[in-house]
Amino acid sequence: MISPLFLDQVTIVAFLALLAWAAASDFYSYLIPNRISAAVAALFVAHAIAGVPAVDWTGALITGGAVFLVGATMFVFRLVGGGDVKLMSAISLWAGPAQILDFLLLTALAGGLVSLAMMTALRIYRPGPVETTAALPRFSARKQYIPYGIAIAVGGFYVGARLLTG
Fold this sequence. Notes:
Distance between the termini: 23 Å
Radius of gyration: 17 Å
Strand content: under 5%
Shape: globular
Number of domains: 1
Helix content: over 70%
Number of strands: 0
């Protein structure tokens, strides 16, 4: 028989793999597919059912819902992308009340670093005033898009690492 601890660790590793996929997808296409966020949320259910250690379902749902409401409001004002909101909400289930502040802080710090890296790359590789390059799709256009899924994944990696190490 497979132990619940092993199953829980497998779900956490799968969660981390999905975060890597989301980050890569956002970097290359500026899109985070809905199936990634849905899979992250579904894996949370498997993680919670494995119950090693016990998961605060109520706290996780409230945390995920609150992040979704704030993110949806930001989406309405075009401050963030819809994929970013869905991914952050799904990761917030995993973070729960115990890790949500750490997750949000690390995501914000990583977002600043990603923005700085993109601005630096734009300054170095800018082909013309408004042209776009394959290396920096859409970022070099007038409106500057940031693949924030990378930063969200960094925050999620922290949550996953904390869950793996106890």
